[in-house]
Write a structure and sequence with these properties.
Layout: E1 37-40, E2 58-59, H1 79-84, H2 101-110, H3 137-158, E3 167-169, E4 176-178, H4 179-193, H5 198-215, E5 230-233, E6 236-239, H6 244-264, H7 267-286, H8 290-306, H9 320-345, H10 359-372, E7 380-383, E8 389-393, E9 396-409, E10 415-429, E11 432-441, E12 446-449
Antiparallel strand pairs: 1-11, 2-10, 3-4, 5-6, 7-9, 8-9, 9-10, 10-11, 10-12
Helix pairs in contact: 2-4, 3-4, 4-5, 4-6, 5-6, 5-7, 5-8, 7-8, 8-9
Length: 451
Amino acid sequence: MKKIIVRGIVALSIMSMAPLAGQAQVNNLLKKAVGKAAETKVVQKAKEAVTPGSEGELSTFPSEQTMKFNPFGSYKPSKEAIKADPMASDNTVRKNYTKSPAQIRGAYEHLDKDLFPYQPYYKYSDAGLYLDGTQKVEDFIYYTTTQCRKMMDESYAKLNGLEHNGLIGIGNTGKSVPYSEIVINAFFAEYLADPNSYIAYRQMIKAYILAHQQFLGRFRLTLDAGSQTTVTKDGQKNVLFEPEEERLKRNNKLMNIMLDVAMKSDYDIVFRGTYGSYTQAEKQYEAGNMDAALTNYREFVTSFDYFLQKHEGWKSDERAAEFETMYKEARVKMQKAQNAVIENSTDPIDMPKTYKVSAEIQNMAKQVVAREDPEHKNAQICYLSDGWRTLTRNGFITHRAVDVGWTYKDAKGQRWLCHGIMMQQAAYRGLTVIYLDGKYGMSGYGRTKLK
């Protein structure tokens, strides 16, 4: 295992984290762009109070979100919170935190309700929507991430599945939320309450991975026809806490807020958190624990791609070159770990439905498959969706995407289907969306056995 000096500490105190990984890698947004732009008229106009680029000038969608809550402020819990929650009186700052349980709970009470609608927090702690402090954090992580892993594994194994495998009721409200919401709400809230906490940062990355999977449309609820608020399973109608579309929009906003807050947080925490995931991944990989290795490699790659290398402190960090080498090697190991997990756990499936697509998509897919999987660059390529779909944030198109697959036989004669999401980045010229020629690809892919 490579070793790298972590500034300011002799050794890392790293929590044990249960598996969260599904069968596909976290898609980091594409980094290198060449070539010219191909234009398509914008399908929807900006909905936010933001001015896109003027004619002839390209602009990306606005990433920064606004909220009233100040993550770096100090908050005290209310009398009601102290009465309802014993931890709201605890002023002892725990290891790897910078704020006490009382301060964190005071922050929970001041979170923007449009971003964290489960208020007051102490009425929703029992459902797991906030870390209530009365149970071990490790137990909480194990419960929630195990449920989410099951949910994601099943959806990928079926390859159709854009569905959560379960809902969880919220107290006596009669309402339900998806399992993923427990992780996303709890870990995002804790990070905003203490953004310079090493543990809170590590846990926020877990939540970010899940929220990002939702953004890509990799799993979602199967809603009742014509409804945004009910899901019928096993003959029972479940009422959601809020319209599913609103929940997804809220989580997308929170993803951007996590990025904005992390950029203002202590660089050393972001670095340590990223390195902590790496060291755990390497340890598990060397021990042959591929499931745990895959989990931690995903967290390392996500933390590096979206947070560490974007932080101002990265520019002057003398460890950057060595870290980038570690990153490239980790990406290779992550793919190997993923392949091992799938080979050992996935039941063969029928070949899913395929579609005809345009020559443009076919040409792009050939290049992408050759880059992603050079060993099978001559494999038969298929298309698992019927053309481009657009991905948006805040009313702005950010990418267009299509589901691509390719099939091959291994040395034992087993047929495999590789599958991933090919995306092309968008920018704006005035109110016209531009799809950047050359800025497309997929970052990682899943493999599934075929019957």
